[in-house]
Structure formats: structure tokens, C-alpha cells
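Let us practice reading a record.
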Amino acid sequence: MASALETLCGQAFGAKKLHMLGIYMQRSWIVLFLCCFLLLPFYIFATPLLKLAGQPDDIAELTGLVAAWLIPLHFSFAFAFPVQRFLQSQLKTAIIAWVSLAAFFVHVFMSWLLVYVFNMGIIGLCVTLNVSWWILFFGEMAYVAWGGCPETWSGFSWQAFVGLWEFVKLSAASGVMLCLENWYYRILVLMVGGLENAAIAVDALSV
């Protein structure tokens, strides 16, 4: 859904309506944040939904556990992706690269610490992913808020709440388009889960 922001920011940047980029980003935050709540039941009830779909109990239960721990990651997407689109539309890709590099080092260190030192296993990996993605958002947002985009970011504005329905429709259309491109792989994973030795089959497909 954040891909809609890329289109709007690109148009505003080309038309020299620079102040609108920050407003568009805030609208995107609002819309995506609310959509995160709509999708939340799929994370909370992942285990019974997968069992209902015919997946083996052990895979369904482990997936439900992972899904619950990845809820912070789920919400981070609503903020991180719009900031990235906001910066990309202004050709400020260097800051994205530097923040991503910092998040990468933190990710590697935390993975080692939580998995090998504290033996947290897959939960440690989930915690690491949560932290890494929020670092991406806070790092890029710090650059924006502390003067990195003076022409396109002037702080939070009530204008972000104007025209939300139009933004929802555009974002939903973009989201559906990308979902259709990517869901075929998820459907394959579900189908493989019904085979014998499902754990090995799912692992092989993931690799």
C-alpha cells in the first residue's frame, strides 16, 4: 500500500509542491497504521486459521508463535515504508543506505547474542527483526526531522487528516496489485504444507 505514496510524492516533487510530500507521508502513516489493526487478527489467530486450512499442527503452532512475536514488525512496516518512499522520491537514497547499514550491524550482533548466547532460538530472531526494522524507521525519520529535508518536511500537520478516503482508495489499489504479484508464492507454501513430510517440504521451498 505504501507504493501509492511513491507515486504521489513523485508527482508533487515534479510539480514543485514540495510541502505536500510531508503531508502525503503522514496520510500514508495514518492509513497504513489503521490497516495494520485490520490485519492484526491474522497474526493473533494464525494457528487456528492454519489448522482450519489443513496445515499440520506442529507447523501451525510454530507459525502462530512466530506471528505473535512479529506483531511489532507488522506495525513498523506502516511507518518505515512511507519514510523510505518519501526519501526515494527526493533522490535521498544515501541516507537509506547508511541507516540500513547501521541496522544490518545491529541485526547481526543481536542475532548472535540472542540465538547463540542466550539460546532464544526463533524467538530471538523475531526480536532481532522487530528491533532492526524500528531502527530503520527511527534512523530515517531522525534524518528527516532534524533538517535533512527542510523543503519537504515542516513538521506534523492537521492537513494529513484531509482527503484520507481518496488516499485509502489509491493505497488499496496499489496494495491489491502487489498482493496479486506476491500471493502465488504464499499459496504454494500453504499447498506444500499439505504434503507428507510437510516441514521438510516447506523448508525446501523457503530455501
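A brief commentary: The chain has one domain: 3-154+161-206.
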